[in-house]
């Protein structure tokens, strides 16, 4: 104890007269509770100011609003208790969610069928009532861009696009150093840029959107079709009878030489590349960051599509795979860490 107290005095010299400061308070880690609610997974974590994920919990996204809100609040209350044990001082809650979000109101305005019913949902009021903390909310694509800007490839970049791949396809756009929300919080809805006049049906109700070709759900749809035709499984692959066929199996099959699987994935990558080209021609950013589970699968095809089809002056754009484990979650944390009042 004596040595401990000497060490503390050494690291933290006494405060000037009239100022007292509790040592344990100084040793607390300033942090944020961060939520990422997607079409498939709900994640809640504690993120430190330095960008370290101190703790992470996740569960499948419940399919109705009541259960979604309940799970979200339960996980947050659990996380705040764990934060205390980890000596983390929580500055606020940042929420990344699918759907169109009004960040001023902390309100999810509207979602597609990927998050059925998740429309006109006030997230700020119930979360701040349950946790007595300030709450920030934004769309998951926007949060991915914010995560990249604070901790990833977007650091110091004035103009870049983040693409979030998961159940759907989301986007976030930073222009002149600022995140673009648009007049009605619908900017950078990259997933619903059309790459075909007809094309497959999209979760948004339209058809031919890039999300209907390139998302996790789109690949899952195609994987199931192939499987039903008995054309998915190739040598070296084993699928249990109760396993749900998904994008993962399609990617695995393509890697093992399944030409049909490979073709579907190539089409997904080409569709994404085509949508990206439209944005390059509209805004000419310096960088595109591919985030999420499908980023490594698509990156080369997106680069190749840009090389083949973009205007020569737009081809110089850098296309990089995110190095962050959870870009949207990090962006949600950054909402808190950037804006919370600091002592
Ligand atoms: P969301 O944020 O939309 O909930 P996630 O980022 O958690 O989604 O990713 C879930 C989606 O990614 C699902 O569509 C799932 O099938 C797909 N997926 C999960 N793991 C893999 C993988 N290893 N390879 C390809 N797709 C995957
Ligand atoms: Mg997501
Ligand atoms: Zn759509």
Fraction of residues in β-strands: 15-25%
Given as residue ranges, the uncertain stretches (5+ residues, pLDDT < 50) are none
Number of helices: 11
Largest sheet: 5 strands, mixed
Bound ions, cofactors and other small molecules, one mention each? adenosine-5'-diphosphate, magnesium ion, zinc ion
Oligomeric composition of the shown chains: single chain
Content-based structural category = alpha/beta
Q: What is the element string, with H for helices and E for strands?
A: HHEEEHEEEEHEHEEEHHHHEHEH
* Average of the residue pLDDT scores: 94
**Physical arrangement of strands within the biggest beta sheet:** 3-2-1-4-8
The separation of the N and C termini measures 29 Å
- Per DSSP E runs of 2 or more residues, the count of β-strands stands at 13
| Outline | globular
How many whole angstroms does the radius of gyration measure?
A: 22 Å
Question: What fraction, in percent, of the residue positions are helical?
Answer: 25-40%
Describe this structure in words.
The protein has helices at 2-11, 23-27, 65-85, 124-131, 140-151, 211-214, 216-228, 247-255, 259-283, 295-309, 327-339, and strands at residues 29-37, 41-48, 53-60, 88-97, 100-102, 107-110, 121-122, 135-139, 160-165, 169-175, 178-179, 287-292, 318-321. It is an alpha/beta fold and 343 residues long. A five-stranded mixed sheet has the order 3-2-1-4-8, sandwiched between helices. Helix 7 runs antiparallel to helix 9 (259-283) and helix 9 (259-283) crosses helix 10 (295-309). It is globular and about 65 Å long. 44% of the residues are buried. Bound molecules: adenosine-5'-diphosphate (ADP), magnesium ion (MG) and zinc ion. Residues 38-41, 166-167, 216-217, 220, 246-248, 251, 292-294 line the site of adenosine-5'-diphosphate.
């Amino acid at each position: 104890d004596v040595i401990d107290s000497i060490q503390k005095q050494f690291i933290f010299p006494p405060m000037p007269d009239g100022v007292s400061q509790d040592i344990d308070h100084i040793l607390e880690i300033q942090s944020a509770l961060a939520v990422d609610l997607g079409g498939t997974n709900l994640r809640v974590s504690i993120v430190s100011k330095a960008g370290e994920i101190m703790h992470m919990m996740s569960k499948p996204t419940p399919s109705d609003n009541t259960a979604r809100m309940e799970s979200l609040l339960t996980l947050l209350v659990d996380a705040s208790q764990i934060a205390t044990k980890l000596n983390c001082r929580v500055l606020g809650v940042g929420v990344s969610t699918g759907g169109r979000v009004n960040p001023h109101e902390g309100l999810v305005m509207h979602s597609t069928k990927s998050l059925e019913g998740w429309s006109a949902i006030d997230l700020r009021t119930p979360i701040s009532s349950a946790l007595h903390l300030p709450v920030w909310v934004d769309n998951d694509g926007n949060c991915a861009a914010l995560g990249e800007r604070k901790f990833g490839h977007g650091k110091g970049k004035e103009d870049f696009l983040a693409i979030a791949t998961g159940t759907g396809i989301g986007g976030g756009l930073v222009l002149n150093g600022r995140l673009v929300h648009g007049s009605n919080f619908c900017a950078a809805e990259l997933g619903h840029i059309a790459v075909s006049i007809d094309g497959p049906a999209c979760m948004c109700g339209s058809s031919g959107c890039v999300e209907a070709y390139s998302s996790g759900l789109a690949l899952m749809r195609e994987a199931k079709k192939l499987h039903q035709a008995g054309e998915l499984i190739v040598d070296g692959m084993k699928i249990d009878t109760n396993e749900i066929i998904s994008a993962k199996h399609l990617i695995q099959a393509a890697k093992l030489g399944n030409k049909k699987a490979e073709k579907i994935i190539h089409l997904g990558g080409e569709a994404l590349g085509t949508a990206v080209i439209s944005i390059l021609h509209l805004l000419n950013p310096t960088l595109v960051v591919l985030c999420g589970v499908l980023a490594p699968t698509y990156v080369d095809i997106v680069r190749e599509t840009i090389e083949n089809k973009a205007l020569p002056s737009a081809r110089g754009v850098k296309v990089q795979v995110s190095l962050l484990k959870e870009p949207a979650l990090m962006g949600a944390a950054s909402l808190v860490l950037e804006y919370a009042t600091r002592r």
